[in-house]
Amino acid sequence: MRKLTILIILLIVGYMVGIWTFLLFPQILIVGGMKALMLYIAISAVLAAVPYYSLEATKRSRYFFFEYLTKVSKTPGIGISLLMFIIIGASLILYYSSLGITSIVGKGNTLYVALAVVLSLLLSSLILFRAKEKSVVLMGWFAILFLIFTLISWYIIRNFALSVAEKAVPVQFALETLTGNIKSTHLSITFPLVIKIILLAFLGLGLGFGFYIVFGTFLPEETDSRALIGAGYVLQLLIGVLATYIVVYSLAVSFPGTAILYGHATINKATGYIVKIAAALTEIKSMQAKTVLYLLMISVYLAGMTTFIPLIETAGHIISESMQSSRNRAISVALTGVFAVSLILTSRYLRTLFLALFFSFLGIMVAVETLPLILSGNILSKRAKLYSSVVGICGLLVGISITVRTLSLGAWEKLGIVAGVVLLVPLLLNSVLLKTKP
């Protein structure tokens, strides 16, 4: 049982630490320094209660996910909304993970990214279909691989950056500036930075997808949910800081003159740095630079896959329950949906649309995720319901704030908001969906 608990903790860590950790964590620390880190720790520590209550809700009730939504919270539409958001979020993760891995060979064009998407889906299928009831164990071991690889990457990339800095003054200056910012206690915290920190906290804990509510159905009654979430939270925080230094070292070597600008880039532009860093490291033309390139991009790829696979397992569970189909067929449907959206993302304009949709509605989906906890009847305490209500309201306000800001941007961002409204339509159909249940 102890071994299983450790593997579950590592699975949760792998799920929490995703590709967005590598993209956003460095940004908030470069811009906000230690103040931003402390604020992130405080916000994510407060939010960490939601995964705990989510695990406990279905673990205590012993209901499956849709059973819980139908018999307890009376909100089956939430399952459909979360499923659509999972497909979108998983597709973005898969696309950018694939973009990173193709950058190793300097092939970031549509054909190679699409090929990487297909191969990644095949890898995911192999893990999910072959593992069956042992999928939790296998995903735990996959997370271990990621953690070990991240540690090795940090050590080698750090040594390379320091050795280059000794010979190149611009690289040394960039390193001193970036690491100085990270350690600074004097940088100001602006409202846009606070919003980005909250978004990172949502993503760092894996909120907005219903993962923990589904995962709670698999946990044995004797499992300590506090230990799972607590250990996962601490480890993902440490890996987040480690990922920041990995990216910072890579930036300093790749763009010594403009590396500091990464902290101020929009989320859309930050994702483009994956290819830019790869191109810059390729131009250095040394074995050490190639090693750094491989380690960085494989770390980003593994970070994406350790989040992607649990999300597909979650989507498969939701589809299996709602459609009364087998697990394999449900996962096949989820993977097909992700494949279709991932191919759409190869269009720059549609990619902008889906990024705007995802980040604008993330806070709103966190609010949606708290509804089954608020409407949990006697399963959760009044304190848990009140706590979930406060988090839900905060998530909703953050979502509305980002949506309003996004509406002031370009046409494709506006279309992303319009498309995102579809995510909320199932919430209006709860009464209809309840009537269709036996």
Automatic annotation (TrEMBL):
Provide the membrane topology annotation.
Multi-pass membrane protein
**Any idea which UniProt keywords this protein has?**
Membrane, Transmembrane, Transmembrane helix, Transport
Gene Ontology CC terms, in alphabetical order:
membrane
Q: Which residues form a coiled coil?
A: none
Task: Tell me yes or no: is Zinc among this UniProt entry's keywords.
Answer: no
Where is this protein chiefly located? membrane
State the compartments where it is located: Membrane
Q: Which InterPro entries does the annotation name?
A: Na/ntran_symport, SNS_sf
Q: Does the keyword Transferase feature in the UniProt annotation? A: no
Q: Which domain of life is it from?
A: Archaea
Annotated transmembrane regions: 7-31, 37-55, 76-98, 110-129, 136-157, 193-215, 227-252, 291-309, 330-347, 353-374, 386-404, 416-434
Protein name in UniProt:
Uncharacterized protein
Lineage, please? Answer: Archaea, Methanobacteriati, Methanobacteriota, Thermococci, Thermococcales
